[in-house]
Amino acid sequence: MRGYAARRTRPGRPGGIVHSMGLVNRVTGRQLALDGLLALVLGSVMVLGMIEVASFHPARRPVDGLAIALVVVAAGCLAARRLAPLPSLAGVTLAAGAYLVAGYPFGPALLSLPVALYSAGGHLPLRRSLPAALVAIAALTATQVPGASGLQGLLTLAVWHGWLLVPWAVGAALRGRREGTRRSREDADRRLAYEERLRIAREVHDVVGHGLAVINMQAGIALHVADRRPEQARLALAAIKETSKDALDELRSTLAVFRRPEESREPARPAPGLRQVGSVVTAMAESGLPVRLEVTGRAVDLPAAVDLAAYRIVQESLTNVIRHAGPATATVRVRYEPRDVVLEITDDGRARVNGGGAGLPGGQGIAGMRDRAAAVDGTLEAGPRHEGGFRVLARLPARAAHE
To answer: Which residues are paired to 341 by β-bridges?
Structure first.
């Protein structure tokens, strides 16, 4: 049948993919085996039940080989109820219709019908399964119309066959619930992927922005003193080399998340934290920005997310001093409190109207630092100081939220 062919799945994935009237159903080998077992057991029950109840219907045609064959065919079609719901329903309907037209007794012989209708409702979209169910029920009803007497008989016949919509409705309801759960899971996966991309973008922005700011400062110093003090120019160039190397190493470590494990040949670099702030301050001082570091309180091990956020806030604040404050001196104060760690970064340069990028989207400047603080249930304030310069004040939790 055109448009009804099987394809193999990717290696390592069990089962197959079947296109059924433009739809795709993923069926595993275990499910096929279970459906085959269902067809076997139900077929046996139908045959034995048909033989047992035949004595209660003396007016109907006696059970013979044709009746058993039709029941076996109807049951056998259920083996493909997940693999091909529409052909399975069609096969069951034809076999059951032939059984009824031949005049065989009612009863267990028709058990395959509700199962086929339930399967159609449970594995096909509503726009496909409902018309198929209505056609199947109408076809079965039509086989009994010649035996109905008058309008009352026709109404009774319609109501009698109408109950077959119940198993279809149960299957359709369960499918709708599964689809809702699947969509919710996909939405959650997309949200997590977006948040991860945003986190990586912020990390890249902070690493590259900090490195380029320091390199720009050192390059300006080197150009300024190249002719008069070549020794200082060489020191600036050495600082540029070291800063660029550190930035590249950190950028490579940040982007390693996009590589498959077998492609990663370098040992994982530990995430930076507050304990590395001293090296940032030293690098800034060597780059020409005087920075004083003050640590008060008893240092504690912070949660990884908080530790990284604190480091990036200090790093971005000092980067903003280089970019926007002009000639200035900066002070970094780290205060450990029983429940929080407080960061205060101040400078005495010229105040920034926009806070060093506060209005820029995408995790830049103050907006990015504020997002980092909020992500770990902290707060961040930033703005010009009355006495001149700029101040960033962040308060982050020293313990994880569940502790």
So the answer is: 336, 396
pTM above 0.90, yes or no: no
CA distances from 306 to 96, 129, 397 (A): 67, 52, 7
Q: Which helix (H) or strand (E) holds 122?
A: helix 112-123
Outline which parts of the chain fall under CATH 3.30.565.10.
273-403
Measure the CA–CA gap between 88 and 32, rounded to whole angstroms. Answer: 13
349 is written with which tokens?
Answer: 């340069």
* Whole-number Å distance between alpha carbons of 316 and 277: 12
For residue 203, what are its two tokens?
């990390």
For residue 156, give Cα distances in angstroms to 108, 112, 165, 301.
20, 22, 15, 78
Quick one: tokens of 335? 């205060």
- Indicate whether 270 pLDDT > 80: no
Q: Are 341 and 379 in contact (CB under 8 A)?
A: no
What Rg, from alpha-carbon coordinates, does the chain have?
Answer: 37
Token pair listed for 266: 């370098």
Q: How far is Cα 136 from Cα 126, in angstroms, rounded to an integer?
A: 15
Token pair recorded at residue 321: 């001093």
The pLDDT tens digits of the residues spanning 288-321 come to 788 899 999 888 888 888 998 898 899 888 888 8
Distance between CA atoms of residues 84 and 61, nearest Å: 32
Joined tokens for residue 52: 């047992």
Q: Which CATH architecture has domain 273-403?
A: 2-Layer Sandwich (3.30)
Buried b (16+ CB within 10 A) or exposed e, 268-304: eeeebbbeebeebbebbebbebebebeeeeeeeebbe
* Rounded CA separation 195/179 (Å): 24
Report the 10 Å Cβ neighbour count for 69. Answer: 13
Q: Rounded to 10 degrees, what is the CA torsion of 344, 347, 353, 355?
A: -40
